[in-house]
Amino acid sequence: MTKSNDAASAITTNGLISQLKRWLSGRVSPRVMGTSRVALVLLALILLMVIAPILSLVVIAFGDAGDVWPHLLSTVLPRSVMTTIWLMLGVGSLTALIGVSTAWLVTMCRFPGRALFQWALLMPLAIPTYIVAYAAVDMFDYSGPAQSLIRWLFGFQSARDYWFPEVRSLPGSILVMSFVLYPYVFLTTRATFLMQSACALDVSRTLGAGPVRLFFAVALPLARPAIVVGVTLAMMECLNDIGAVEFFGVKTLTFSVYDTWLNRASLAGAAQISTVMLLVVLLLLWLERRGRREQRFTTTTRRYQSLPSFRLGGWRAGLAVMACALPILIGFLLPASILMRSVFFHWRDNLNADFLAAMGNSLFLASFAAVLTALLGTALAYFARTQKSALVSAVTRLSSIGYAVPGTVLAVGILIPVAQLDNLIAASMRDWFGLATGLILISSGAAMLYAYCVRFMAMSYGAGETGLQRISPNLEAASRTLGRSSWRTLVEIDLPLIRPSLISGALLVFVDVMKELPATILLRPFNFDTLATLVYGQASLEAFEKGALAALTIVAVGLVPVILLSRTSSRSMQG
Amino acid sequence: MKKSFRATVCVAALMVSSASVSFAADEVNIYSYRQPFLIEPLLEAFTKETGILTNLIFANKGLETRIKAEGEYSPADLLLSTDVGRLQAAAQQGIAQPVVSDTLKANIPAHFRDGDNQWFGLTSRARVVYASKERVEQDSITYEELSDPKWQGRICTRSGQHDYTIGLIASMIVHHGAEETKTWLEGVKANLARRPTGNDRAQVKAVYAGECDIALGNTYYMGKMQTNDKEPEQKQWAESVRILFPNSDGRGTHVNISGMLLTKHAPNRESAVKLMEFLSSEEAQQIYAEGNFEYPVKEGVQPSELVMSWGSFTPDSVELSKIADARKEASELVDIVDFDAGAN
């Protein structure tokens, strides 16, 4: 560990600067520089790339916002802050409830259908929130099957004869979003339950803990970091969602950002609200970190024994089946069946050349972005781990911030620096070579890829980090003591160990790029469609049925990683 | 890192070829808020007539910001947009350039275009009342009377912050001043049957469902519902209401436009102006207006038969640019009275 300890002590604020200075003046011996120089440069480059859009947002925020603030403060903001808090609390607790309970049931209990539920519970992950929102309204509004049944049963004539909860409301959106977002919690929590040392659980059982006690006293506290990660992802997703909240008429902060940008024509004002939101998110992330710091668990062995399990029978089994089936029904089966119905009746409008081209584009963008983001994210996580400095890890954490920014806001933050760079390139090409290249970054689609990387870095970084966290530093230390370089330790020890996390991170990025809409729309080249923009184009015409096949394909493609994901995590149980 | 860079370059090259970007002189690049299906027939007709090719990007927000950010080298020639407020705001952001064209002047009436020739209207639509055939007796209505307590619990509308609603409220400000409009808006809010959500069509559906008796909506939604073979249920919604043109006997019904502007750094200026002129021609006006059940702006061009079957009306003749100017105030009023919270 000597070399990385050197690096670690060097990288405090002053250390960083002096090291940079020494490096720039070439006064550092090549031996010492070896890994740390490459590491530093890479780290700095990736970080700069990932943080640039956020910086540009902050720069925009310093612009003249006009006179929007007094009005915003006295009217819109207090309401939207409250709405947002309620939405996040609601979605946070509901996803935690659904995610943790289902994860525990399928991991630790034996009941009919358990094997199926193990992967089926991930399926809602494949469905974009705006599609579920659409499906929920279709199902539960006046002319939907639910209310029609009530009218038929009781002989009501019109909406005035009875009361029915309004789907397009805050509670409605909490329910709908929770049923799509809980897999984040399920996924992270289940992985932890699976990897929890069977010994710990065995010991507590030997000491006489029943299933309930075992869950609350041992498993849950052990899984807390994973739960927090999952819930944070879900909350961030609902914080920056615009599709579903717009559809439901729920005025969150994100909604205000759009409003300020588009209706009050104040990009600066919008950027200011976004920046404040960002600060709140940073605070959340920091609190989460602090909470987790006291709880770092690693396992010392890779031998996982089969976990103890509880056999459920009778009404308990029935309850377990219901608890697992309900989220799948609402979060997946319902919206998917509505899509399938549309495809069935309108397949001619759906299956055409546009669809095929869009599918090609989507698959290509998603796989490329997934690989790229996985590489960068893991690199970041690894560097943050090796450079044991608070500053480095804090700065590295910042790279995840793209996920917490509303998609379109981030897209604007990307658009502006990229367009400036693009103009610079175009001007130089013209002046030096007499070439009219135009805006090459934007017209080539590179800007879109960049946006995906920034937006979904949190997934691959988070995955890499959780994976690395579970590796005991002893292992690395042993590897280094036995003469492996830090590079060989990474390749031969760390990477194979974190492979499941790595793959799951990349898969999450893949699925999310397939669904991604706002950045794609704002940054896409001419005559270019992805499946998501196709769905969106038809939905904006209220001809949703014509985009159903594209939507269903997004869902189906999203399912493939979901299935792989569940296989990866089951395999990691056997070790 | 090196590898991924190389790969990026490869991908970039691939995508350039697939995205078919080109800057030849015989092309026009369009950024559009209007759906492709609507303008593609027009663009095809244009290409047929002139041999000039067109490229399209469609989005529902942010195109002005993109044009502005792309700056000098932006490939965009033309921005197609809806709502006079957005057109005017775009012009104020400095992304447009004036077009002096006798053809445009002759084809587009003065109140449908900008005084400084920065933007031009192409089609118009009226903001009307969809009244239940069963539960509403009266044959005429005014916007002003929507705040009358006789409508309590009977009105449905989409969000107050939507462009269309803001346009209507802005026109009230132009006619009556902000103070009176605020009182009016509070009255309308008190009459709402439910919290404003959903689009215009959803409001008509609510009338059909019996949740409310009148709904505010743009005219073309009637056409969209009447001709909807994919979801025939919508024909029943349309069947349950009739269109009342508010204030048609008096100051006129509020209308808004869809329109276009030439970008400041348009690389294909000449061809783009040709396209603009083409879009204002009789042939294009007919196709454009019919495609979305709107009203052509060029005088003498008839709307489609279906549109005419809804009856004729007197449009509000106030200059649209004035309405655009009152838009910000309208949007603030919506927040001040907390319109979107609904009654209670």
From TrEMBL, chain A:
<feature type="transmembrane region" description="Helical">
    <location>
        <begin position="214"/>
        <end position="236"/>
    </location>
</feature>
<feature type="transmembrane region" description="Helical">
    <location>
        <begin position="363"/>
        <end position="383"/>
    </location>
</feature>
<feature type="domain" description="ABC transmembrane type-1">
    <location>
        <begin position="81"/>
        <end position="288"/>
    </location>
</feature>
<feature type="domain" description="ABC transmembrane type-1">
    <location>
        <begin position="359"/>
        <end position="565"/>
    </location>
</feature>
<dbReference type="GO" id="GO:0055085">
    <property type="term" value="P:transmembrane transport"/>
</dbReference>
<feature type="transmembrane region" description="Helical">
    <location>
        <begin position="395"/>
        <end position="420"/>
    </location>
</feature>
<protein>
    <submittedName>
        <fullName>Iron(III) transport system permease protein</fullName>
    </submittedName>
</protein>
<feature type="transmembrane region" description="Helical">
    <location>
        <begin position="319"/>
        <end position="343"/>
    </location>
</feature>
<dbReference type="Pfam" id="PF00528">
    <property type="entry name" value="BPD_transp_1"/>
</dbReference>
<dbReference type="GO" id="GO:0005886">
    <property type="term" value="C:plasma membrane"/>
</dbReference>
<keyword id="KW-0813">Transport</keyword>
<comment type="similarity">
    <text>Belongs to the binding-protein-dependent transport system permease family.</text>
</comment>
<keyword id="KW-0812">Transmembrane</keyword>
<dbReference type="InterPro" id="IPR035906">
    <property type="entry name" value="MetI-like_sf"/>
</dbReference>
<feature type="transmembrane region" description="Helical">
    <location>
        <begin position="119"/>
        <end position="137"/>
    </location>
</feature>
<feature type="transmembrane region" description="Helical">
    <location>
        <begin position="170"/>
        <end position="193"/>
    </location>
</feature>
<feature type="transmembrane region" description="Helical">
    <location>
        <begin position="38"/>
        <end position="63"/>
    </location>
</feature>
<dbReference type="InterPro" id="IPR000515">
    <property type="entry name" value="MetI-like"/>
</dbReference>
<keyword id="KW-0472">Membrane</keyword>
<feature type="transmembrane region" description="Helical">
    <location>
        <begin position="265"/>
        <end position="287"/>
    </location>
</feature>
<keyword id="KW-1133">Transmembrane helix</keyword>
<feature type="transmembrane region" description="Helical">
    <location>
        <begin position="547"/>
        <end position="565"/>
    </location>
</feature>
TrEMBL record, chain B:
<feature type="signal peptide">
    <location>
        <begin position="1"/>
        <end position="24"/>
    </location>
</feature>
<comment type="similarity">
    <text>Belongs to the bacterial solute-binding protein 1 family.</text>
</comment>
<dbReference type="GO" id="GO:0030288">
    <property type="term" value="C:outer membrane-bounded periplasmic space"/>
</dbReference>
<keyword id="KW-0732">Signal</keyword>
<dbReference type="GO" id="GO:0046872">
    <property type="term" value="F:metal ion binding"/>
</dbReference>
<feature type="binding site">
    <location>
        <position position="220"/>
    </location>
    <ligand>
        <name>Fe cation</name>
    </ligand>
</feature>
<feature type="binding site">
    <location>
        <position position="221"/>
    </location>
    <ligand>
        <name>Fe cation</name>
    </ligand>
</feature>
<dbReference type="InterPro" id="IPR026045">
    <property type="entry name" value="Ferric-bd"/>
</dbReference>
<keyword id="KW-0479">Metal-binding</keyword>
<protein>
    <submittedName>
        <fullName>Iron(III) transport system substrate-binding protein</fullName>
    </submittedName>
</protein>
<keyword id="KW-0408">Iron</keyword>
<dbReference type="Pfam" id="PF13343">
    <property type="entry name" value="SBP_bac_6"/>
</dbReference>
